[in-house]
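Continuing the series of single-chain predictions for the mutant panel. This is the parent chain; the variants come on the following pages.
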Amino acid sequence: MRRTWLLGLGFFSISITWALYNAFVPLFLGNYLKSVAMIGFMMTIDNYFAMFLQPWIGHRSDKTRSKYGRRMPYLIIGMPLGAVFATLIPLHTGFVSLVIFMVLMNLSMSIFRSPTVALMPDITPESQRTKANGVINFMGGLGSILAFGIGSPLYKAAPYLPFLCAGLIMLISMVILKSFIKEPVLLTGYGDGHSNPFRSEDRTQEPSKHQVRIKDQLDRTTLFILGAIFFWFVAYQGVEALFTLYGTKYIGMSDNEAAFSLTFFSLAFLAFALPSGWLGAKFGKKRIIAIGVLGLFVIFGSLVFVQSVLLLRGLLIVGGLFWACININSYPWIVATGREESIGTRTGIYYFVSSLAAICSPPMLGWIIDQFGYPALFVSASLGMLLASFCLIGAKTENPSSGRISAST
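Parent structure:
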């Protein structure tokens, strides 16, 4: 578990960087663009990279053989580049340089994000992965909160300061990860279980067992899980992107009140990140995810009828607990459906689906709101959770004691 907390530093640095990026880059773009829709489009660059580049990078890391391991070479290359370009963003001299730094930062972050995520199951026994994912998400959530708490006053002092600090944290995290995280020499289920997958001479041994193809990972259970992931991220991403408009235009909150209300959801998620991982390990990931999906189905459906700010924030707290049940256990579950040597590939597929949802959801739910009014936001989100629950029915259940998928549904 010590290595899990150390690996959490990688997610801590990633979360700080993205939180600052999402908070302040729209302000930089606003100096050059008047269209909010165009600013929103520019802010989805990372999702396009996540859709098309991260699955490929994750797949490549499965087949990478080096003295540093499968994943670490991507961290060694991507994290310093990400730190540099993140630091350069507030130092732009015009719209063109700003866009160039944004694209290069997103490209650099895509190089190491999937391999960093895939490191967790690489170094963690199957039975401990949901707990480890809880630790990692806790560290990531802590990074986001600190980014807002400390980044805002730093930005007020000088716009480049929070980005410079994020870059330094990323570099320090990379050094710590390189020094203390050693990738396993042997991988369960890899070849005959005795070969060293990081040595180039092993590439010629039983290639049929070593080959990992993306299409081979899309079995029936995986497709149902990916369908569930898509629908619950459509619901979540739509609410996250449009809630401040809902709060100000429909409930009558101020801008600050609406933004602050989402903090209750995030803090509840952070508080329940570790317990939800423990519950997933003890009772089964699918069971805990199903509780979270049905819980958010009820919460989102109830919010349609809520006008009180106090009651709304109370329901958001409960919603954050249910979201932790879903988000903490979903990645370990998608990994558990495949072989150990396909972890990077399945990580990339996971990010492809979640990023596709992030791209589709805000404009789709925004169009629905235009047609039917703001209450349609939570009606649509509740429907998304209902569709996710239908997908869960078709997915096989894993054995809680082993974490592996069983034949029963």
